[in-house]
Each structure stands twice: as C-alpha cells, then as structure tokens.
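Narrative of accomplishments. A recurring question from our advisory board has been how the design workflow behaves on a single, concrete structure rather than in aggregate. To address it, we present the structure tokens for one chain from the evaluation set, followed by the sequence designed for it. No filtering or post-editing was applied between the two.
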C-alpha cells in the first residue's frame, strides 16, 4: 500500500506544483516508486515532470469519471522511478460532471487503490481551490503537505484549509491529517521571512518540516525544460532542499 499525500493550499502561486514535482522526482531518485497525480486543469505538474500535455492519449479526467483506469491513463515519465497521471484543460469540465456522479468525492481514491501495489508514494498536486477536485485529493490521501511562503499573509487562509481538512477527516476520510507545513521560496535575508518562520515553528511545532526550501531561480527555470528542478541542476540550493525534503518524508512516513 503506497503512502498517499495531497499537496494542497487554496492559494495560487504558493509552490504546490513545484513541491509536488520536485518531491516526486526526488523520491523517484531515492528508489521510491512514485506516482504524481496532476489534479489541476492547468497541467503544470504534468509539464514540469516532462510529459507533453498536448499529446496525451488519456488523463486523470476520464479516470475520475470512471471511463478509464489509472493503469491505462498513467504515463511513465522520462525520469527515474516516476509515473504521472497527467492533466490538461479537459479536467476543467470534471468539476461539473462529477456532481452528477455517485460517490463523487472518492473517485480518485478508488482509481489509486486499483494500482496500489505499484507504488511506494503517491503525490497529488491539488488545484488552488477547495473544489470537488481538491476534495478528491483529500479523500484519497493519508495526509496533507501544505507549502507556504513566509510572508505577512501566510497564515491568512490557512485556517480555511485546516477547517476543510478537519471536516473531511470527520465526515469522509478518517485517515486524513496534516503531515506538515513546508516553508518554500524562503529568503533568509528578509527579517519578515525569519519572523514568520519562527512564528510558524512556535504555533505548529513539529508540524513544520525541518527542511526549508529557499527561493531559487533554477527551480523556476526547470519546468520550461520539462525537467524537475532536482534533476535540472542538482547542485542548486533549491534542488538540494527538495532532495533533503524527500529524505525527511521517507523518515517521516516510518513514524505515521
Ligand atoms: P502553485 O502550484 O501553488 O500555484 P507553483 O509551484 O506553480 O505554485 O509556483 C508559483 C511560481 O513560483 C512558479 O512560477 C514557480 O516556478 C515559482 N517558484 C516556486 N517555488 C520556487 C522557489 N523555491 N524559488 C523560486 N521560484 C519558485
Ligand atoms: Mg499549481
């Protein structure tokens, strides 16, 4: 049975996709059989993992609607140990179509369970909303990884996400918990970043991951080459941080 984690935060541009792609690639590099599920119609995780979203034969969309199996829809990425359940624009329609479908919040969970023996880790890149797509991610997962920037408004919105996670835990998925908050795009020279970071540690204790991902331009450049940042420039600080984060996750799952 794989460990399944949703990477979620209803804010856009906070590093969900960068975290999903790089953690998945780093886990693959570490010999963990990993599936990256792209649940965002923008398909950025698909692209970042090196899969061309314009030429997909299948995607997560028919899988959610029960029209294709995960085994048929997944693609092997060009990178070690990494499969991708890709997404493209089609997925934008799923939100509406799912409403009609029975057991609509558990479609992804069911699909993953059919390939459970193939993976050690499944990572789900959620869209920037608390939508039915994100709900599918939360219902399929054992835990949530929340990437956040250490800026003034970082904590705003966090309570909405935490409340949603609590509701899903209470009503739909007793396994679900917050695994941790990941500080991303961190600027060590900024006093504000350091203050917010310290606040997070004092409020959330060991729910804050030890690894801190710095702001690093190589991570931002990598997607345009279709190569995860951790592989694009292994010596870059951002790549090293995500590689360290993969080790932290491998350790953390042993305690769950
Ligand atoms: P989300 O999926 O939450 O919308 P992304 O992962 O797409 O966020 O990140 C938003 C933007 O910030 C992207 O352009 C991405 O390349 C950039 N970015 C993410 N993390 C970093 C980082 N650590 N350093 C520099 N740029 C980053
Ligand atoms: Mg994204």
């Amino acid at each position: 049975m794989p460990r399944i984690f949703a990477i979620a935060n209803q804010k856009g541009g906070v590093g969900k996709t960068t975290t999903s792609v790089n953690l998945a690639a780093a886990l693959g590099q570490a010999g963990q059989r990993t599936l990256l599920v792209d649940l965002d119609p923008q398909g950025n995780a698909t692209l970042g993992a090196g899969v061309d979203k314009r030429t997909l034969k299948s995607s997560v969309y028919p899988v959610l609607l029960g029209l294709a199996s995960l085994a048929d829809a997944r693609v092997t990425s060009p990178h070690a140990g990494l499969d991708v359940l890709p997404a493209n624009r089609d997925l934008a329609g799923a939100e509406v179509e799912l409403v009609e479908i029975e057991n609509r919040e558990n479609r992804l969970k069911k699909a993953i369970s059919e390939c459970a023996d193939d993976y050690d880790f499944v990572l789900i890149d959620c869209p920037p909303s608390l939508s039915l797509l994100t709900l599918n991610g939360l219902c399929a997962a054992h835990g949530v990884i929340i990437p956040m920037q250490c800026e003034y408004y970082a904590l705003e919105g966090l309570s909405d996400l935490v409340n949603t996670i609590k509701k899903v835990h209470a009503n739909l998925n007793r396994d679900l918990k917050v695994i941790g908050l990941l500080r991303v795009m961190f600027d060590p020279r900024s006093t504000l970043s350091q203050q917010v970071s310290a606040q997070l540690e004092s409020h959330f204790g060991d729910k804050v991951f030890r690894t801190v991902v710095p702001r690093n331009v190589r991570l931002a450049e990598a997607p345009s080459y279709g190569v995860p940042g951790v592989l694009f420039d292994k010596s870059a600080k951002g790549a090293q941080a995500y590689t360290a984060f993969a080790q932290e996750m491998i350790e953390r799952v042993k305690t769950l």
